[in-house]
Each structure stands twice: as structure tokens, then as C-alpha cells.
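I hope you will forgive my troubling you with a question about protein structure. I set the record out below, with my sincere thanks for your time.
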Amino acid sequence: MIDENVEKKLLDAVRNEEDTERYLMGENSWPVLCHLSAIRENILDWYAFDPQASLLEIGSECGALTGLFCRKVARVVAVEPSERDSAVNLARNRQYGNLTVLSGDFCDMEIREKFDYVTVIGSLGYAGRRGGSENPYLDMLKKAKGCLKEGGRLFLAIGNRYGLKYFAGAAEDHTGRCFDGLENYAAAGEVRTFSRGTLQKMLLEAGYSRSVFYYPMPDYMLPSEIYSDNCLPSPGSIRYPCVAYDRDRYEVLDERLTFDSICADGMFGDFANSFLVISECGKCCGPDEGTVVYAKYNRQRAPEFRVSTKIISGADGVRYVEKKALCPEAVRHVERFSENREKLNRRNLLPEASEAGAGVPVPVELLSNENGRAVFPCVEGTSLSKEVNAGLWSRETFLKAMHRAVDSIYGTFLNTAGYLTDFAFTGAFEEIFGISPEDPEAETLRGMKSPAVSNIDSILSNFIRQPDGSLVCLDYEWVFDFPVPAEYLIYRTVFYYYSENVHYIRVSEPELWAEFGLDEEQVNLFRKMDDHFQQYVHGKDRKYMYTANYAKKTINIGSNLKNGERWFLSIADDIQELNIHLGGFRRDLVECRVKTHRKSVFRDRCERKAAAVFRRIARKLKKTREESGTC
């Protein structure tokens, strides 16, 4: 529930979309991000709702998802116990004529209408605050089922009690304290999250006939990806820790590396940070037209580049990939897939390239591309990133695999006489990569060679090796037909793999660049180019990546524990002693600082201080002896 000051701020922010985005990019408080960000919609934007259906939203808060539901179905009833939250919801979604907002506690309401869908996004964990029941969480699920039509569906989103982020030191979402869920909520009062197994049992006991689990990452509040049991992440897929936006957090372990082992051992469903569960009430009315098994959203790009990516399993079990514009401005960007594929195919048909044979990467087939929606087939095989992953534990094997992967992408073109041309500056190059002929770095680019067409996003995971050895390029979103240095393309391919797997790689970064013929001056220039390309995609100074403004400090204590740092353990001893003396009182008066100095300076200071102490003692002893008349 928001307070009065936050309510005023949010009411001001929701007057129109431009104001909302302006607030998001200019603020840094969690309530603003939580209630206003369109990232919240990723949790269910991908689901194919029946447009003629009705939906009951339990715990609508300030309407972060209400507008999505109003656009998806014919009738929406939003229930929210907070009057302030309901006021913001009404102001925010006033343009929808199919919305009814009810202010009050759902568990106290008598709702006779039956709905096709009921959503409980984030509110189940607070059901215990009502009291008066042995199992208020189960009671809430039963009451929600009572509001569903036969064949209706419940959408439940909640944190996983055993989510990896909690082991890593993130505070429990409901209590704000570390480890409350892991320690059985012994000190937490009347809030709860649940494990996958417990949720399954509760839903069965509440009368739901079948439940399907999805896994929003990094969590259900601000998800960027949605996994399912039919499309789980593999080692290397998760390369972002769960950022804290409401308070500073501790980091006891590296979530990325831990998820690698969890995914390898097939345990992701048990340790995912949160769940989205779709539960059926009775027998549903026929199969879905297409079941989404994975979804990814790029909402923090400039509007003209915002797209979603889905893997969909058709009724016949055949999978396909859909890329879709998230706003009207991005429709043209999606339509460029057809043009980009033609450019790559024309490049591959050049006499110089065609003579080289089967080593040319082939762009994946485009099944359809219209109305801001591009559809591709799913391609079976092994990605180049997985080929390189197999050699990570050995320096020699890794370098050999890395060279083979880079050669698979670029070798044909680099080794074919007459294919590459001299690099030349163009207006498009200056706009996208930020380097002009007048810049001091421009001299570094002179003399470099460029392919006729460049696929900027030639990262290893975007290439699939098929059983016959041929290579398929899965993604050609960023294809340019103006000169781009081949060395920069190679840099980008190597850099993005290295940055995601640096903890495993037994080769230093300078050594790796030298392996691919890149010197320090070139690498520094390419970093600058890539930064400008990211600003081209995400807005000047990456302004649309506004969540970075809200990120709180992460205190990494895990590395110090892991390395057994004696100085860190000594501080822990001091804190423990202070803890005993304070006894839980007046800790707000304590502020600690650790100052570090060069060893010689510190030693000299100690020696000088000790010498001064000894001199004072000597003077006192001398004076005492003189006064007493002793020798």
C-alpha cells in the first residue's frame, strides 16, 4: 500500500504515457519503478487470452497490470484493498470502458460473478495478515477458484521460498530481512512464500485440476524472460544477478555461476527466484492454438527497437519463433528482417563467397513477416557457444574451440580474395558507431577491411551447427550494408562470449585479443564504438535503461568469505563483540569505516606513535624518581 506522498506523485505521473516515462527515467525510488514500469507487463503479455473473456484481478495495486488485461479481454474487474492504490489505478486506466475497480479485501467480498480468468499476482503471500483461519493461503486459493467458470484459469505469481537469490543474500520480498523464508519464517509473522512442491499440493487441495509452472527471471516483479518446464535455461543462459531496487543487499555467492551448476543438474525449477503458475478449474475448452514455452522482452530499448521474442509450440508439437513489435514505432524495425535476410543472402551469393563452398553461415528461414510480426522455424543443432563451453576448463582446448567458432562465422569471407573492401567512413557509420573522420581514433580504422554486409549481432549463441556441419544464423536483427571493420565484428563476437564466461576462462583478456590479432589501441576504439552502438539502441546515455537508476548497492561479502580474508574476519569479530555490548539497542548510532593505507605508511605511523608513548612513559618515570629522590 502506498502512502499519501507517493500517491500524489503517481497520480501526477499517470496523466499520460509521456509523463509516466519521464517520471521513470528521472526517479530512483522503488515505488515509482514498481508501480509505473511497463516491464511489469512482461509477466503475462505473452499469454494468448481469449479476447471475449472476463477477468478478475485480485490485488490490482496501482494498475501496473490492469491496463494490459483491459487490452487483452472484454471485461476486467480489479479488486484492491487500498483506496489510494485504487485511485491511482482508476486515473491510470480511465480510458478503458471495460474496467471496474472495487476497493476492499477480496476475502471479505461476496463476488457472485464467474470469470474466465482470475489473477493473483503477488498478493497470495500477504493472505496470512488477515488472521482468523488455520490456512488463509489455501482459503484464498479456494475462494479464487469459486470465482472461476468451469474451464477457467487461475494465474498465480509468487516468490519461490527457495529462490537462489535468497541463498545469495537478497532480502525476503515481504519482510525485508535476509533468510526469513529459508529459516522457516520463524521471525516473520504472517507472510509467506512457498516452494514448488508446496504450491502444487495447495493448488490440488484447493480443487484445481492441473497446474503448469513458468519461471520469470530475474523474478516475477520485473521479468525480462519467462522460462517453462518445456524450455529451461542451460548453463550460461543466466548472466544477470537479481538486482535489488528497494534496499541495499548482500551478495554471498555469485548467482550466475551457481545457476550454471543448478541448470546442469536439472534443478532450475526448484531454485528459480519466483513462479508463475497457470492452474485450470475443471476441464478446459480444447487445446490452445499455440503454447508459449519461452518469452523474452526488450522494453528498455528506444521505442523504435522494442521487440519481444517467443518460442511457441503449435498444436502439432512443432516449434517456431516469433519476434513482435512492442509498440507502433517498432513495426518498421521488425519488418526489416526480410530486408536483412535478403542482404545476407546476396552477400552469400557473391561469386567470391559462393566459390568458398559450404562454410558460409546461412540465415534462418523467414516463414512470415507482416504487421510487426516475424516468424522463424526452430532450428535443431548445437550452438557455437555450447561448442566452446565444452573446452572452458582447458586453456589449449578453449583457444582451439574459440578459433574454430570465429572461423566458422568469418573464415570464408576473411580468406576469400576480393570479398573484403577497404573501410570507408559513411554518415550511417558515424551515426551508429560514433566515430567520424575528424576524431583522433579515426586513424586506427584506416587500412582496415570491411565485408559488403555486416551482421553486428554475430555472437556465438546466435549460430547453430547442424548435423551435416552447416551453420545457421538464428538472428539478423542488426544487419548493415555500409562498411564496418571486420576486426570490430570479430572483437564483438569474442568480447561478448568472454564477458559472459570470464570466470571460467584460463586466458587473460590481453592474451585473448592477441590471439585474434587485436592490439590495445584497437580494442579501446572498439569499446567506444560498441558503447555508441548501445546508445543507438537504448537511447543517448542509455536513457531507456532506466532501471539502472534504481539499483541499490550490492555488498559482496562472499568473495571475502571464500578467500578467507583475515582482515575481513577480524572485522566480523569486532562486529560480533559490538553486537553483544549493544544488545540490540542504539545500533542506529553506530557507523563503521575501514580505512586502508600503504603498509609502509601504516607501519611508520604505528612506530612513531609507539615511540612517542615510550618517550612519555620515560619522562614520567624520570620525574617520579626525581621527586622521590630515588636513583
Remarks:
- The domain at 4-300 is CATH 3.40.50.150 (Rossmann fold).
